[in-house]
Amino acid sequence: MRRRRLAPLLAVSVTATLAPALATSTATAAPAAIPSTASSSAGTGALNRYVKQKPQWKRCEADSPAEFECATIKVPLDYRVPGGKRIDLAISRIRSTAPDKRHGVLFSNPGGPGGQGLYMPLEMQEMLPESAQQKYDLIGFDPRGVGRSSPVSCDLEPEEENWLRPYKEETFDKDVAWAREVASKCKEKTGDTLPHITTRNTARDMDLLRAILGEKKISYVGYSYGTYLGAVYTQLFPGRADRFVLDSAVDPARAWRGMIQWWAEGAEPAFDRWTEWAAERSEKYGLGDTSKQVDRTFWDLVARADEKPIELDGQLINGGDIRSGMRGAVFSPESATEGFVELKKAAAGEPASTKTLAAFAGSRGTGTSGASDAAEVPSDNMTASFWAVVCGDNSAAWSRDPESYRQDAIEDKRRYPLYGDFASSIKPCAFWKKSMEPATEVNNRIGSLIVQNEWDSQTPLPSGQALHADLKDSIMVTVLGGEGHGVYPNGNACTDGTVTAYLLTGKLPAKDVTCKATAESNAGARKNQKPDALPGSPLPERAPDRF
Q1: Helix or strand or coil: residue 272?
Q2: From the candidates 485, 521, 537, 545, which is the catalytic residue?
Q3: What is the pLDDT along the chain (547 residues), one digit of tens a residue?
Q4: What phi and psi values does residue 143 have, to the nearest 5 degrees?
């Protein structure tokens, strides 16, 4: 994918007397939230009114910890016209446990796009050792358009949220109609707002929040999509980025169609690894004595399920569902093998473990898995905000010709049999409006720590390596044999120690770090265990259709 030159962001200046936190150096004295198209006089005045907001902090929920506080601030819908329409940004914090040792603020994002981050401080509190909690105020927020931050909706029915669809000649016209309808409903429901729900604007919201909090810089921990948000922030506001941890990284040059296609590219070597693993244990699992035999066992079941779907708890599982479920499962060979064995039992009419089969039974991607219980959040909010970012960040990445998606799906199914057609077939972005800004080219020398598992179902290792190359002064921690999506913390002294030391001292390792996964660290990441027992990521396993 061709990289695009970053358009100049800042064109107006403001003195330190207006907002001290906005003037960290001569190079960063401009109001960080105003883009180059803003009027210098009207824009500066409007921004100052935003910066002067005083959040009304209060306990987030009646049953939440007293130290967990929430507030709502206003941000411009369109940063080109900061005096225009305003939207809400729901924010939260847990203050440093030792103010005399406090270093600053630590922002965080759980992934998505469309993931809610308001409760991230509670999760960060579980993750971080006490020494790190003393260093930072933990800051969370629901990104614009998400959760409690003026949530967007497209009024989608649950089936319309099912967007990862295998290519079939007989259903392609229906898939095109579905994609067109989703784009049309989003435009009709939230047309004036959706163009402004972008990563660049969320990064601007972060910087406005930084200024409101009176901070010169922010530190940050971002997962998956959150790595892209963090990288964009470092590009737009290089003088305000302090200690940045980017865990399970997105390649900025492939946002976003290319990142979805990477799900298919990354699945193939993982699938080959699985066939070898299962063949070595043929006596136990009976899937084949060689990797070729295991491969044939798999594809035979896929073909059978396409002819006669497998019934599982009232749900019919077809060959496409098996391929989709296996795409995520194969990044842990043991889990994939155990699940596939149970699937074979179900196909034969034998009792099967539905818990082990969860990956296959839940393979049809929908956005409802991330929906909030809050009454004010629309049920399709995660999906609506997902498309707003995935389509709106870089419309140039999406062809306007439906026929091109057919050809790509056919070709990529040949190249990447497991998942190529899912990733490359038609999406609503084919019918989306043109992006209001060019895509962000990430290319800077901001120091940051990139953390990556070797076997990651959502952001494959080459994706993290690409971000490492874009962030010239970054250091990368690679977990050889590491499984799952999301590394820190995982109970591995090598990875956890490196990340925590950086957050505490701000000093990056002298060179890239290679850690070796352990059985415990891989298991811990999947079991969502508490840090005081066996550290494992408190973040839930992401749905197979999200970053």
Answers
A1: helix
A2: 485
A3: 323 222 322 222 222 223 333 333 333 334 444 443 444 455 677 888 999 999 999 999 999 999 999 999 999 999 999 999 999 999 999 999 999 999 999 999 999 999 999 999 999 999 999 999 999 999 999 999 999 999 999 999 999 999 999 999 999 999 999 999 999 999 999 989 999 999 999 999 999 999 999 999 999 999 999 999 999 999 999 999 999 999 999 999 999 999 999 999 999 999 999 999 999 999 999 999 999 999 999 999 999 999 999 988 788 999 999 999 999 899 999 989 999 999 999 999 998 887 777 777 654 544 443 444 455 899 999 999 999 999 999 999 999 999 999 999 999 999 999 999 999 999 999 999 999 999 999 999 999 999 999 999 889 999 999 999 999 999 999 999 999 899 999 999 999 999 999 999 999 999 999 999 998 888 865 553 333 322 233 344 456 788 9
A4: -55, 155
- Rounded to a whole number of angstroms, the distance between the first and last alpha carbons of the chain is 19
Tell me if residue 456 is catalytic.
yes
| CA angle in degrees (0–180, nearest 5) for 254-258-260 | 120
Q: Which two tokens stand for residue 287?
A: 């899937």
Verify whether residue 353 is a known catalytic residue. no
Query: Is the distance from CB of 446 to CB of 241 less than 8 angstroms?
Result: yes
How far apart (Å, rounded) are the C-alpha atoms in residues 70 and 261? 38
Distance CA 118, CA 528 (A): 19
Strand 136-141 to strand 86-94: parallel, antiparallel, or no bridges (unpaired)?
antiparallel
In whole angstroms, what is the distance from residue 418 CA to residue 319 CA?
Answer: 10
Which burial class, exposed, middle or buried, applies to 74 when counting CB atoms under 10 A from its CB (0-12, 13-18, 19+)? Answer: middle
CA distance 204 to 217: 13
Euclidean distance between CA atoms 482 and 387, whole angstroms:
30
Rounded distance between C-alpha atoms, residue 452 and residue 218, angstroms: 22
Which of 456, 470, 496, 545 is an active site residue? 456
Decide if 224 is catalytic.
yes
pTM: 0.90
Residues present in the chain in total: 547
Say which of 224, 291, 457, 521 is annotated catalytic. 224
Q: Are 464 and 202 in contact (CB under 8 A)?
A: no
Tell me how crowded residue 138 is: count the other CB atoms within 10 A of its CB. Answer: 26
Listed in sequence order, the residues at least 6 apart from 144 whose beta carbon sits closer than 8 Å to its beta carbon are 75, 87, 89, 150, 196, 197, 201, 202, 205
Q: What is the DSSP-derived secondary structure letter of residue 460? A: -
CA distance 546 to 488: 19
The helix or strand, by DSSP H or E, that contains position 413, with its residue range, turns out to be: helix 402-415
Question: Cβ contacts of residue 483 below 8 Å, gap of 6+?
Answer: 331, 332, 453, 455, 456, 517, 522, 525, 526
Handedness of CA 514, 331, 381, 376 (dihedral sign): negative
